[in-house]
Amino acid sequence: MSLSKSADAPLLQRAKNKLRRMLGPWGVFFTGFLKHPVMVGSVIPSSRFTIAKMLAPVDWDNTKLFVEYGPGIGTFCQPVLDKLRRDGTLIVIDTNPDFIAYLRRTIKDSRFHAVHGSAADVAEIIGSFGFDHADYVLSGLPFSTLPDGVGPAIGKATGEVVRPGGAFLVYQFSAKCRDYMAPYFDRIDQGFEFWNILPCKLFWGWKAEDKS
Predict the structure, then answer these.
(1) CA atoms within 13 A on the CB side of 148
(2) Whose CA is closest to 169, among 193, 140, 149?
(3) pTM
(4) pLDDT band, very low/low/confident/very high, at 18 (cuts 50, 70, 90)
(5) Ramachandran sector of residue 144 (left: φ over 0; alpha: ψ -120 to 50; beta: rest)
(6) Torsional class of 21: left (φ above 0), alpha (ψ -120 to 50), beta (otherwise)
(7) Which residue intervals define the domain RCK N-terminal in the entry (predicted)?
(8) pLDDT greater than 90 at residue 176
(9) pLDDT for 128-140, tens place per residue?
(10) What pLDDT band is residue 42 in, cutting at 50, 70 and 90?
(11) Phi then psi for 124, rounded to 5 degrees?
(12) What percent of the chain has a predicted confidence (pLDDT) above 70?
């Protein structure tokens, strides 16, 4: 490296840091989308209308563990924490280390845990926190663009960890996720949210109550 390039490096880094601070969480989200477009569902975080409708069916009084796949910059995290019981736990899982670092830095709640890993390993991840099942799992991962085999693996893993009476909550631009949910959930309710960029499809996959 030449002397001039070496001298310019700190200036370039400071410029990047300044731009990141100016853009705030939107900058983190957009950067994450550019780095991993097939793993991030949208270039813009979900709207408050999508959040409210997606979480509406959750039985918060009976939710001890809520899991989210692909939390991004935490668009759903604070709304979930606001409703979660005081002894509840929120575990979020993302393959993007930048998102995980941002969430660990910005969300200071003892109930919150951000894990760098794959949603397909959800059973192992929640097990490391002492849980053998989740009450609800939320996902905004773009199932239609995930690498081959990943979508089915996530559907199977989620079907195994969600408790009877619990649900897999998914918001997407495509209905592809339904194919991966159907083998493991007894009922799938569907919805649609127009007030989102882009308008998105909503799915709630329910496990039947254990009547034994």
Answers:
(1) 0
(2) 140
(3) 0.81
(4) low
(5) alpha
(6) alpha
(7) 72-139
(8) no
(9) 999 999 999 999 9
(10) very low
(11) -65, -40
(12) 77
The structure tokens listed for 63 are 């939710």
Six token digits for residue 149: 């085999």
Q: The tokens of 194 are what?
A: 């127009």
Average pLDDT of the chain, as a whole number: 85
Nearest-10 crossing angle of helices 97-106, 3-35: 90
Task: State yes or no: pLDDT of 39 exceeds 50.
Answer: no
**CB count in 10 Å sphere of residue 179:** 13
Domains in the chain: ranges and CATH:
48-206 (3.40.50.150)
Q: Supply the pLDDT for residue 14.
A: 63
